[in-house]
Amino acid sequence: MADPTGYHAHIYFDEKTIEQAEKLAAGAGSFFDLTVGRVHRKPVGPHPMWSCQLAFKPEAFGKVIPWLSMNRNGLTIFIHGDTGNFIRDHTDHAIWMGSMMELNLSDTE
């Protein structure tokens, strides 16, 4: 099994929680060395809800994940490593904060 070269934390939200999600993503971006992705107002890729991706290096995991857990305020966050194995990264090796959701993995290799 390959070690992750990075991690993604996908913040899930809807029209009622978009401002909360944007504040969480911006806060993470100001506190940590990570990349805040676009705020998607529709499901993108395998994600079943609107989402915003935070991308960070493995050495930041121990700081980013505890911070997200303490500041998510009820939002669901889906976390996975990037090992190059898309299916396993999004299933067997995934971490959920909040409600687990079914991903759309039908269009993947």
Fold topology:
Blueprint: E1 7-13, H1 18-31, E2 35-40, E3 50-56, H2 61-71, E4 77-81, H3 86-90, E5 95-97
Antiparallel strand pairs: 1-3, 1-4, 2-3, 4-5
Describe the structure.
With 109 residues, this protein is an alpha+beta fold. Helices cover 28% and strands 26% of the residues. The chain has helices at 18-31, 61-71, 86-90; strands at 7-13, 35-40, 50-56, 77-81, 95-97. The protein has a 5-stranded antiparallel β-sheet with strand order 2-3-1-4-5, covered by helices on one side. The chain is globular, with a radius of gyration of 13 Å.
What is the tally of helical segments?
3
Largest sheet: 5 strands, antiparallel
The largest beta-sheet arranges its strands as 2-3-1-4-5
In helices, the fraction of residues equals: 25-40%
What do the pLDDT scores average to?
95
Beta-strand percent range: 25-35%
* Spatial gap, N to C terminus: 18 Å
Oligomer type: single chain
Shape field: globular
List the uncertain runs. none
Structural class estimated from helices and strands:
alpha+beta
Number of strands: 5
Q: What series of H and E elements makes up the topology?
A: EHEEHEHE
Radius of gyration: 13 Å
Could you name the key traits of this structure?
alpha+beta, globular, five-stranded antiparallel β-sheet
Explain briefly what this protein structure is.
With 109 residues, the chain is α+β, with helices and mostly antiparallel strands.
